[in-house]
Amino acid sequence: MLTPNVRKTWAPRGKTPILRCPARRGKISAISALSLSPKRSRVTLYARFHQSKNIKAPDVIHFLSHLLKHLRGHVFLVWDGGAQHRAKLTKAYIAKHPRLHVFRFPAYSPELNPDEFVWNNLKTATANSNPEDTKQLKRLLHPPLQRLRQSRTLLWSCIRAAELPW
């Protein structure tokens, strides 16, 4: 969101940092997936940003078709119970593609979702910034996203941080 994500920061003693920002509306919605190879030798991050709108079933379907193009073999999805995941359109798409196998996280369990740690990482990287508009916010998000995509260590840390039963 264009509202600054304020985190702890350093400042000279006695000089409280002040982040001034006008009241602005606007946001970027994101959809992402962490992919593990069958032998767990490769980990990849796929992500898409959508400016000024919430993710809907057609966006999920577009993202799933992108995943199916780039991943070979069976694709096992583990996701939350968001409305866009439960939509009839999404269910129909999944039914047409036998390579897709879907499992849901239990309700209210973000600690199990490695993607939550991906987005925590990005929010931390853009903390205390004050973007003018969603285009600038998107430009702020790209460098940390690329750094995350290129770092196996960071991606594995997101997976290990999730309390998934292996």
Please provide a brief summary of the model.
By secondary structure, this protein is α+β, with helices and mostly antiparallel strands.
Account of the protein in words:
The protein is of the alpha+beta class and 166 residues long. It has one domain (28-125, 132-161): Ribonuclease H-like superfamily/Ribonuclease H (Nucleotidyltransferase, domain 5, 2-Layer Sandwich), CATH 3.30.420.10. It is built from six helices and four strands, in the order ββαβααβααα. Strand 1 and strand 2 form a beta hairpin. The longest helix is centred in the C-terminal third of the chain and has 17 residues, at 134-150.
Helix and strand arrangement:
Elements: E1 28-36, E2 43-51, H1 57-70, E3 75-79, H2 83-86, H3 88-96, E4 100-104, H4 114-125, H5 134-150, H6 152-161
Parallel strand pairs: 3-4
Antiparallel strand pairs: 1-2
Helix pairs in contact: 1-3, 4-5, 4-6
Largest sheet: 2 strands, antiparallel
Q: Which fold name fills CATH's third level, the topology?
A: Nucleotidyltransferase, domain 5
Uncertain spans:
none
* Percent of residues in beta strands: 15-25%
Helix-strand pattern, N to C? EEHEHHEHHH
CATH architecture: 2-Layer Sandwich
The count of helical stretches stands at: 6
Distance between the ends = 34 Å
Whole-number radius of gyration?
18 Å
CATH top level?
A: Alpha Beta
Helix share bin:
25-40%
Outline type: globular
Q: How many domains would you count in the coordinates?
A: 1
How do the strands of the widest beta sheet line up side by side? 1-2
Q: Structural class of the secondary elements?
A: alpha+beta
Q: What is the tally of beta strands?
A: 4
CATH superfamily, by name, is: Ribonuclease H-like superfamily/Ribonuclease H
Q: Mean pLDDT, as a whole number?
A: 85
